[in-house]
């Protein structure tokens, strides 16, 4: 999993059926220093909001397991909202 | 999933079995601010309706084939949605 910051949302009315009704969040992936290292669009299953620091799961089988699907073209999910992050003994500020 | 712009299409009459009828589009991956980022790739169009000039999002790796009717096929990028709107918050309050 990866630590990321939710920075926006994507709205799509024409999509594959399994994305119907799902919230899509634009998430800045963070490196060990907290700097932005790319982004991903992830399905939200924990009611995360813009500004939240979150945990991103980016693996298909696990993602399908979370959504209880046997098949489906999904990979990236927001699976947690981070309360506290400590790196090298130092606490990192999270929202 | 990532954002991309559809910039073209690919026609291939000789294909691996299972890919018959699959539309292939050339897409330019974009960063979150919709600026080109990285090399263009060929993606299967799981929506059958995407076309040049459209802003879409796509899924990569094994999961791409999961978007198609025939799931056990060699496809590593698939367009899974057409974007209506991207809302970005520039300044996230820490």
Instruction: Determine Rg of chain B (CA atoms, Å).
Output: 14 Å
Assembly annotation = heterodimer
Fraction of helical residues of chain A: under 10%
Shape of chain A: globular
Distance between the termini of chain A: 19 Å
What's the count of strands of chain A?
Answer: 8
Q: Uncertain regions of chain A: pLDDT < 50 for 5+ in a row?
A: none
SSE run of chain A? EEEEEHEEE
Q: Give the N-terminus to C-terminus distance of chain B in angstroms.
A: 25 Å
- Largest sheet descriptor of chain B: 5 strands, mixed, barrel
Number of distinct helices of chain B = 0
Number of strands of chain B: 6
What is the overall silhouette of chain B?
elongated
| Tally of helical runs of chain A | 1
What fold name stands as the CATH topology of chain B?
Answer: OB fold (Dihydrolipoamide Acetyltransferase, E2P)
Q: Given this structure, which CATH class of chain B is correct?
A: Mainly Beta
The biggest beta sheet of chain A is recorded as: 5 strands, mixed, barrel
Return the CATH architecture of chain A: Beta Barrel
Describe the structure.
The complex is a heterodimer of chains A (95) and B (94). In chain A, strand 7 and strand 8 form a beta hairpin. In chain A, 7% of the residues lie in helices and 48% in strands. Chain A is built from one helix and eight strands; from the N terminus they run βββββαβββ. Chain A has a single domain (2-92), classed as OB fold (Dihydrolipoamide Acetyltransferase, E2P). By secondary structure, chain A is mainly beta. Chain B has a single domain (2-82), classed as OB fold (Dihydrolipoamide Acetyltransferase, E2P) (Beta Barrel). A five-stranded mixed β-barrel of chain B has the order 1-2-3-5-4. The interface between A and B is medium-sized, with 30 and 33 residues.
